[in-house]
Design a protein that fits this description.
heterodimer, A: alpha/beta, eight-stranded mixed β-sheet, globular, B: mainly alpha
Chain lengths: ~350, ~300
């Protein structure tokens, strides 16, 4: 297992995908928003990494930086590396990078209704990359589109291939998007909150589908979500983000058993549970930090129930290696882990 | 779809009848003396007058005259001008010229306006964007009454590139008036295209298209363009109808024998049948144009279905 706080001097290429010490900021008229502040994570073939965090924690921006679809400007990447098969995507020429985008690494988005183009049929959109990026003929691409729609279990794919996105239900639309992302047989699939816009029963079906596809096609999957309940069944590892940093990283079992960061514990405590019926649901107090004016020290200290002055206020905690690939960016990570805090 | 068409057709008939009625009534209400207008400077004797009044049915009540007229109209007969020429002939002669003029104008609008709008949207906030913004504001502010004579002076007399008058209208002679006619809608088309395009640029589906690894020219030229075209096509269709009708000034300045020219003359000579006839034709053109636009709308945007 690799230590997550790797420095820039470490050799690349041990992982399928590796984000290393990434910084992203948005330059706006009101100032500079520091959205990503040194994110590092990696992904291997055949595994699922869940990236967890609330709105504005930078989980989507990291994904968009990997895809290379950030609008620059206003976004700027002052520092960091993103290795795909050992090559730094950020140093690549745009045409080489575009070659990887959508083919080796592809992405599905949250709201399939707005993420699909309303004026083209779903078959047209699924087959578009095949028609334009491979030698495949129009007919063959359309046939492949039907196969892909079958693969994501859209009933009656053959008759529905000419339908438009608005003619599908929310869950089917998301399946269309998944089919589209699979067209070029990607090695890495980034799913950015794929079930947020769906109702609960459909959510479960889509998550099952993604898990099956990930296994059958042996892809690496990055699952971006703010829903801890969603990740428990499908993810191998979890990276928890807060204010543009990974504040805790561990395999799923360890993190559910004993979180090593107060924020993760806050998240876990705020999941509604049947055996807590009748008691008030725990919440994390306060609001996510303003990215234009981040707090000093630990970015979580204004909301942390265990905050210890002065260290938490003055000193930004380093990412501590807790063994077994587990890290936590808390001054009291060891105490958290041993259950001696709170 | 069929029911929609039937409904639209019935609506068109209603609008058509209402418009012709209003124009007919207005011309009637101006209360000129068509007999004297017919005779020009010459004196008209009371017997001649009485005969002419009877011949043209001017002694009939208003509603009877209108119904007679409408009856002829629905049989495709626009009647005669006061000078005895067939209005059908006049329209058949002048309409193609005006149509050519309008097509040149609309092509100008598309080539210059839509293209510039797209460039401005892609380079939003740049020099091109800002300079065209100022330029279009100026153009919008200058009426055709000013633009047409100035263009005529500059491009036919100072710089003799085009013939001063277009007359029966060969295409080259119609080029300058066509561009002048299109100039106004160029500005509007550009602003509209820019807005529509920028809005679509920010859409989620653009991000999806980019994440598919499509080259920028395909994202812009296929995904964004197709969506941005919807409001632009609407505008252009209506504008084509308006251009056919709104060429009165331009046709007057360049002395083009088009519909607008004829209409202006008819108004001057108080030739009620000719005015109403031409307006009826323009109304029909306008109605058909808006129907075509509405149908195109459904072709461009699959979310729109007519029931």
């Amino acid at each position: 297992m690799t230590n997550l706080q790797v420095g820039g001097d470490q050799p690349a290429g041990q992982h399928l995908l590796e984000v290393r010490d990434l910084f992203v900021e948005f330059h706006t008229r009101d100032g500079v928003a520091k959205v990503i502040n040194g994110v590092s994570y990696h992904l291997d073939a055949g595994e699922t990494l869940a990236v967890l965090g609330e709105s504005g924690s930078g989980k989507s921006v990291t994904a968009q930086a990997i895809m290379g679809i950030l609008d620059m400007p206003p976004a700027k990447i002052p520092k960091g590396q993103i290795f795909y098969n050992g090559d730094d995507l950020l140093k690549m020429a745009e045409n080489r990078r575009r070659d990887i985008r959508g083919k080796d690494i592809s992405m599905i988005f949250q709201d399939a209704l707005s993420a699909l183009n309303p004026v083209f049929s779903v078959g047209w959109q699924i087959s578009e990359t095949l028609r334009t990026r491979t030698e495949m003929s129009k007919d063959a691409a359309m046939k492949r589109a039907i196969e892909l729609m079958d693969l994501v279990k859209i009933p009656g794919a053959k008759t529905r291939v000419k339908d438009y996105p608005h003619q599908f239900s929310g869950g089917m639309r998301q399946r269309v998007m998944i089919a589209m992302s699979l067209a070029m047989d990607p090695k890495v699939l980034i799913a950015d909150e794929p079930t947020t816009a769906l109702d609960v029963t459909v959510q479960a079906q889509i998550m099952d589908l993604l898990a099956d596809l990930r296994r059958d096609l042996n892809m690496g999957m990055i699952l971006i979500t703010h829903d801890l309940g969603v990740v428990a069944d499908v993810a191998d590892r979890i990276a928890v983000m807060y204010a543009g940093r990974i504040i805790e990283h561990a395999d799923v079992h360890s993190i559910y058993k004993q979180p090593a960061h107060p924020y993760t514990r806050g998240l876990l405590d705020s999941i509604p549970r049947l055996d807590h019926k009748g008691t008030e649901l725990a919440t994390i107090k306060g609001l996510p930090p303003n990215l234009m004016r981040l707090p000093t020290g630990c970015k979580y200290h204004p909301r942390c129930p265990y905050v210890q002055k002065p260290i938490c206020v003055d000193e930004e905690p380093r990412s501590l290696n807790l063994g077994n690939g587990r890290t936590s960016a808390c001054h009291f990570a060891k105490e958290m882990l041993d259950g001696n805090l709170g | 779809m069929f029911r929609y068409l039937v409904r639209r057709f019935l609506q068109m008939i209603l609008v058509f009848i209402a418009t012709t009625f209003i124009v007919y009534a207005l011309m009637y209400a101006t209360g000129g003396d068509p007999i004297q207008a017919l005779a020009g400077e010459r004196p008209v004797s009371p017997t001649q007058r009485a005969q002419l009044v009877k011949e043209y049915g001017l002694d009939q009540p208003f509603w009877k005259r209108y119904l007679d007229y409408l009856n002829d109209l629905l049989h495709g007969d626009f009647g005669q001008t006061l000078t005895g020429r067939s209005i059908n002939d006049i329209i058949a002669e002048s309409l193609p010229t005006t149509a050519k003029l309008a097509v040149i104008a609309i092509l100008t609008t598309i080539l210059v306006g839509v293209t510039a709008g797209i460039i401005a949207a892609i380079r939003r906030g740049g020099i091109f964007d800002n300079s065209t913004l100022i330029l279009t504001l100026i153009i919008i502010g200058v009426p055709t009454v000013v633009l047409a004579p100035v263009a005529q002076l500059v491009f036919t007399i100072k710089l003799p590139w085009f013939p001063t008058t277009a007359g029966e209208g060969n295409l080259y002679a119609l080029l300058l008036p066509g561009i002048v006619l299109g100039a106004l809608s160029v500005a509007t088309a550009m602003r509209l295209t820019r807005t529509s395009f920028s809005e679509n640029q920010r859409s989620d589906y653009v991000r999806t298209a980019r994440s598919k690894g499509l080259p920028t020219r395909r994202v812009v030229g296929v995904h964004i363009l197709r969506n941005s075209l919807i409001p632009i096509v609407t505008f252009l269709g209506i504008e084509l109808g308006a251009l056919m009708a709104g060429a009165i000034v331009t046709e007057g300045v360049f002395n083009i024998n088009g519909v607008g020219f004829q209409l202006a003359r008819a108004l001057r000579t108080e030739d009620t049948p000719l005015v109403v006839g031409i307006v009826s034709v323009l109304v029909i053109i306008f109605l058909v144009a808006s129907l075509v636009v509405d149908l195109l709308y459904a072709v461009l945007d699959p979310r729109i279905r007519y029931e």
